[in-house]
Design brief:
Number of helices: 4
Oligomer: single chain
CATH superfamily of the domain at 57-132: AF1531-like domain
Radius of gyration: 31 Å
Structural class: mainly alpha
Length: 139
């Protein structure tokens, strides 16, 4: 077996050395970014409040949704979704979920089918009412 000759150190010009340093630095930065994005570092912790994740559900606030956001709800098609939004625009925000029965095309059966998927958030409207009554002022 023949032994290799003594290895000589690489002789790089200053320009070649700078190019290699830039390439190496770019590689390290790219790997770091990939690691951070893949591991979601810095995105905060997500806490699950229910023990069974299958029980988690989102509830749409019918005072803020657009018509197309209502389409995934059972028994709600484009016509009913647009009717809900039209009613809201004509009569103002819904006070409670039961008010949906006043919308054309929403029957008690339809309301029961979507009741667990919708809500009415009163926080926005409470502050508007307080402002109208003089409790809040915008100085």
């Amino acid at each position: 077996m023949k032994l290799p000759k003594k290895l000589e150190p690489l002789e790089l010009s200053r320009r070649e050395f700078v190019v290699l340093c830039v390439l190496f630095s770019t590689l390290i930065i790219g790997i770091s970014i990939k690691f951070v994005t893949d591991n979601h570092l810095g995105s905060g912790e997500i806490k699950v409040l229910k023990e069974n994740p299958g029980e988690l559900s989102l509830r749409l606030d019918i005072n803020t949704v657009e018509w197309y956001q209502l389409l995934p709800l059972p028994q709600i098609g484009e016509k009913r979704a647009k009717a809900i939004i039209a009613y809201r625009e004509e009569h103002g925000p819904f006070k409670d979920v039961e008010e949906l029965l006043d919308v054309d095309g929403i029957s008690p059966k339809t309301l029961e089918a979507i009741r667990d998927s919708i809500k009415v958030d009163d926080r926005e409207h409470d502050s508007e009412d307080a402002e109208k009554d003089g409790w809040l002022s915008s100085n």
